[in-house]
Amino acid sequence: MSKFLVAALYKFVRLEDHAALRGPLLDYCEAHGVKGTLLLAAEGINGTIAGPQAGVHAVLAHLRADPRMADLSHKESWAGEMPFYRMKVKLKREIVTMGVPDIQPQSMAGTYVGPADWNRLVDDPQVVVVDVRNDYEVSIGSFAGAVNPHTSSFSEFPDWVRTQSQPGGVLSGKSRVAMFCTGGIRCEKSTAYLRTQGFDEVYHLEGGILKYLENVAAEDSRWQGECFVFDERVSVVHGLERGSYGLCRACRQPVSEQDKLSEFYVEGVSCPHCHGRHDDARKQRFAERQRQVDLARGRGRRHVGVRLAPAADATAAGATVADMPEAEPS
Q1: Residue 181 appears among annotated catalytic residues
Q2: Which residues are in the Rhodanese domain (predicted)?
Q3: What is the pLDDT of residue 307?
Q4: What pLDDT does 299 receive?
Q5: Stated pTM of the model
Q6: What does the pLDDT read at residue 304?
Q7: C-alpha angle 43/46/48, rounded to 5°?
Q8: Domains in the chain and their CATH numbers?
Q9: Which residues of the chain have pLDDT under 70?
Q10: Alpha-carbon distance 199 to 181, whole Å?
Q11: 82-to-20, 22, 260 alpha-carbon distances in Å
Q12: Could you say which of 29, 181, 227, 271 is catalytic?
């Protein structure tokens, strides 16, 4: 039975005092048994948290007690096991990193399209449908017919738009563009950016893929495959049930059951995506890390390392054994 509530949230709002919010927010989450990652920046808040239902709702109420976040929205799902190992509240320049200054999602984002109306929009042959997620996310699932920009990070997206707006590009001469991402936050910025580039009819899936999978029945769906998520579930399917993918701890790419049958798959050390990319010294470190994980698993515990100070380097300290990819969780 699922017993941990998972809440994905974000809001673009001016938080000039975001650094001062970090400590009290971290303490409040930990006091209520809530784990996950929250990103704070001057432009707002973004993240995913999980824990007992009462604890998660307490944290959401705590955030909404700030008048600037009174209308903060979130998406809920359930997990049978705690999908995070610790609670982290990080200070960032952007809550989703595009690297383009002066983008104003609060006022410039495209038109929201709810899950119930999304099929009709993407079925229109005059609409270019763009998946704004990273390539490793797209590789395990996307909407039928969607364009994959093949980006490795969201900061590459503006260059892709500029290139594809040139004659012969998929955006050249197109007036109607629909975009989607995991939870909606990347679409807020990507549609705002497109509008600054002269695109007038820009749409995005309200609530992202997660809201679509939650609300649209599988038999009516245009979704194909699974949806990558930034927690220990790794992927979800319709109804937000846990998917079939695992995670390679060496390269942090999703791995299928077929990948695990490969001669290049060694749990915690390598997979078909990253075999040959790491030197022997690094592989030895990965193997030792996996040995510690296996020992903890044998004792019925999780090997999670220790909570680090905000400025510490988690990789250098070796404390973040099972962290998910350092990317936008929504």
Answers
A1: yes
A2: 123-221
A3: 41
A4: 81
A5: 0.85
A6: 55
A7: 170
A8: 4-91 (3.30.70.100), 105-225 (3.40.250.10), 248-299 (no CATH)
A9: 1-2, 302-330
A10: 19
A11: 28, 23, 24
A12: 181
Nearest 10 degrees: Cα torsion 8, 13, 14, 18: -10
Tens of pLDDT, residues 195-247: 999 998 999 999 999 999 999 999 999 999 999 998 889 999 999 999 999 99
d(CA 9, CA 104): 18
Instruction: Give the other-Cβ count within 10 Å of 17's Cβ.
Output: 12
> Six-digit token pair at 218?
């599988």
Q: Cα separation of 113 and 105, whole Å?
A: 16
Q: How many of the other CB atoms lie within 10 Å of CB of 124?
A: 11
Q: How many CB atoms lie within 10 A of CB 251?
A: 16
Q: How far is CA 187 from CA 96, 164, 175, 233, 270, in A?
A: 10, 17, 17, 23, 32
d(CA 192, CA 199): 9
Q: Compute the distance between CA of residue 228 and CA of residue 206 in angstroms, rounded to an integer.
A: 18
Three-state SS sequence of the chain: CCCEEEEEEEEECCCCCHHHHHHHHHHHHHHCCCEEEEEEECCEEEEEEEECHHHHHHHHHHHHCCHHHCCCEEEEEEECCCCCCCEEEEECCCCCCCCCCCCCHHHHCCEEECHHHHHHHHCCCCCEEEECCCHHHHCCEEECCCECCCCCCHHHHHHHHHHHCCCCCCCCCCCEEEEECCCCHHHHHHHHHHHHCCCCEEEEECCHHHHHHHHCCHHHCCEEECEECCCCCCEECHHHCECCCEECCCCCCEECCCHHHCCCCECCCECCCCCCCCCHHHHHHHHHHHHHHHHHHHCCCCCCCCCCCCCCCHHHHCCCCCCCCCCCCC
Q: Is there a contact between 135 and 152 (Cβ–Cβ < 8 Å)?
A: yes
Q: d(Cα 330, Cα 176) in Å, to the nearest integer?
A: 24
Please identify which residue in the block is written with the tokens 């910025």.
189
